[in-house]
């Protein structure tokens, strides 16, 4: 089994004159990202490796979320994740070495949301409906995939284990 954790970056800001790639987190995002990291630790979902978009807001999200992790997993800042559609994210995931059991990907919508929808074939119906309605900033899906290798990850192979958004952890966070 492989465990894939899909994290959409936390709420970002858009200062005047700034290009999209360089946008930082908003104050709300800086409050939310550590909550997600704490949730990962509290629930035993510490990744072996993290693939993070090169955008500033994803890098900040990961820095704040991972600060509370006991053993910091190796992070790779991957330019192909930025603005990537689901099929491209899937190709990046399939390149993961098989010694990685739990992979976390920090990216953007619509790619993250579309990838989750494509991979998930089972799991609690209420959580699946909730994810399908909206994958907000700071949203995190834990998907268990019945695959021996990351190369085998395909549509419908995943079981949604959890879907959490910052508002679940603190009503002021989102």
From TrEMBL:
It holds the Pfam family His_Phos_1. CDD domains: HP_PGM_like. InterPro entries: His_Pase_superF_clade-1 (IPR013078), His_PPase_superfam (IPR029033). Transmembrane segments: none annotated. SMART domains: PGAM. PANTHER family: OS09G0287300 PROTEIN (PTHR47623). This is Phosphohistidine phosphatase.
């Amino acid at each position: 089994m492989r465990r894939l954790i899909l994290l959409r970056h936390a709420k970002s800001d858009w200062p005047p004159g700034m290009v999209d790639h360089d946008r930082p987190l908003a104050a709300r995002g800086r409050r939310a990202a550590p909550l997600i990291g704490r949730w990962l630790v509290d629930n035993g979902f510490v990744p072996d490796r993290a693939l993070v978009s090169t955008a500033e807001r994803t890098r900040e999200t990961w820095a704040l979320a991972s600060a509370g992790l006991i053993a910091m997993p190796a992070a790779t800042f991957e330019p192909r994740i930025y603005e990537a559609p689901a099929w491209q994210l899937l190709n990046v995931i399939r390149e993961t070495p098989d010694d990685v059991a739990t992979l976390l990907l920090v990216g953007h919508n619509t790619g993250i949301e579309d990838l989750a929808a494509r991979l998930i074939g089972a799991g609690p119906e209420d959580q699946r409906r909730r994810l399908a309605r909206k994958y907000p900033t700071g949203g995190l899906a834990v998907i268990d995939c019945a695959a021996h290798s990351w190369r085998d990850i395909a549509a419908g192979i995943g079981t949604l284990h959890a879907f959490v958004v910052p508002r679940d952890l603190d009503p002021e966070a989102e």
